[in-house]
């Protein structure tokens, strides 16, 4: 066998090995291919969409109930402290006080509850005047970064005292919104305080994003689901022979009433407050809910 035959034999071996390697690579399953078949991926995606739709429906239904019951909730909030006042006065008028000192203590309690009741009425009237236009808002372009930082500085200790991780993702420094800074910060503080008061554990996040379709900015408050407004039973028809005693510290707005007042304030500023579905991408996200504040963006 001469040298040319050896060359042909070597070339044939190399060609055969190359073809065999190529065929093996083609038949080998790709590591980048999806783990689940296409059908299973579609099912998982559909299940997530169904969960989001169900959550959106429940939130919309609850929002509708809160809006429809505004007058009922206002009456309910004011009735409780009034019942307490009536109970204290009945004790005094029926001469059930053991001595003048106890009578004076009941009078003091009635006075304190009257002041708290007056404060609740003033808050409702203030929001009503804003909505009616009697009280004017100072709508000015404000830096959203500065507003969120100020809100964080005023509320982070509330979260730290209860060991709740609280993070604020600040937007771009040049992003401005048209708001009344005092009322906008008050709304955010109210929402954060209400959420902290209702949750037992979990994280609190504040973030923002500009709208891609119009001149609005979304500010998101992400909290555990129990931190969002919940339904409280309201019974304005049934009467009781004995007036239920109301503790002095409980004379305050319930979460639903606070939500409606905050929503009204933002509406006067040209914005909105609503509960939107949280992105269901992880198990942890399924336990979260999102409050979305929509406010006008300043366009120079």
UniProtKB/TrEMBL annotation:
Entry EC no(s): 2.7.13.3
Residue ranges that the Swiss-Prot or TrEMBL entry lists as coiled coil: none
Domain Histidine kinase span(s) in chain numbering: 73-275
Keywords carried by this UniProt record: Kinase, Transferase, Two-component regulatory system
Family annotation (InterPro entries): HATPase_C_sf, His_kinase_dom, HisK_dim/P_dom, HisK_dim/P_sf, Sensor_HK_Regulatory
Catalysed transformations (reactions): ATP + protein L-histidine = ADP + protein N-phospho-L-histidine
PANTHER family assigned: SENSOR HISTIDINE KINASE RCSC (PTHR43711:SF26), TWO-COMPONENT HISTIDINE KINASE (PTHR43711)
Name under which the protein is recorded: histidine kinase
